[in-house]
Design brief:
Number of strands: 3
Largest sheet: 3 strands, parallel
Radius of gyration: 24 Å
Order of helices and strands: HHHHHEHEHE
Shape: elongated
Distance between the termini: 43 Å
Strand order of the largest sheet: 1-3-2
Amino acid sequence: VLEQADLIPLANALRGIHFPADETELKISADRLKFDELFLIQLRAELSKQERLSLQAPPIIFKEDEIKNFVAGLPFALTKSQKISAWEILQDIAQTKPMNRLLSGDVGSGKTVVAAIAMYDVFLNGYQSAMMAPTEILAQQHYDSLVKLFNKLNIRVGLLTGSQTTKLKKETAEEINKGTINVVIGTHALLS
C-alpha cells in the first residue's frame, strides 16, 4: 500500500515532520502522517460496518395500504425528497440487517415526518421505536409533533429526558418495558 501510494516509511515521516531538511521532506512527511490517520479512520469504519453486517434485525414488512393512508391523512403533502427518503428507509428496515442511515436536512425540512412514517411501519409490525434528540427542547418538540401525528392511530408516545424526576423516568421505563409505550422520544437518557 505504501509503495502504491508512494509514501515514505513511518520512521522517516516522524523524523521529517519534526526536523525536515527542506519543504519537500516536510510535505512528504506530512502526507504520510495524514495517510495513516485517514487509513485508520477508514479501517475502523470498515470494521464497524463488517460487525454491523454480521448482526441480525427483524425485517419490518412494508404495510403499503396503512402507510399510504397515513401519508394521505397528513395535513400537508410530502415533498419529493421526503417521499424518496421515506421509501429508502422503508426498504432498509425491511432487510434482516440493521439499518445505518443518516437523514439530514435543514430545520423544517420534514425529517420528523419521514421518521414518523418509518415509526408507524415499525408499530404496524408490532415493534417499538425510539427517537433520540440532542437537547431536551428538541426532544419535547419531537414529542409534541409525534403526539399530534399519531393521535388518531392509537400509538402511545412517551417522553424520557434527564431532567424528569426519577419517579417519572422509572414509570416511563416500566411502560416501555411492558410495551404500553409504542414510540419513545428522549435525550441521551434513552441510553440508560
